């Protein structure tokens, strides 16, 4: 995902949310093109969801029901929180934040949650569901996408 493509697709919508105390509708309007591009461009991605760290759904693509998106957002918050607590208990207090990747693997699907640094709303969680791909590839692509999204959200 090139930065010029991002700018062309989002333009003014992104500019109006920079540096302000936001509600999730503003973030959704800005981030939906970004998560749509993740689903379209990354191999094997079936669905993508962006939510707040406290479990509020912001936007998603590839899910069949709005209720599923709301439930997943709440569950992502819990999964990420529990994983962070486990990381801290294992002696890695500084690793409980942005670099933590929470993954669930099944025989034919991977689901993953990563943090997106965005202080105005106490950070975001990016969730993906992927099929027919390797765990390491999903981690690599989604961690990069989360970093790109974080940079894009705060870019002046």
From TrEMBL:
Species annotation: Corynebacterium durum F0235
This protein's name: Roadblock/LAMTOR2 domain-containing protein
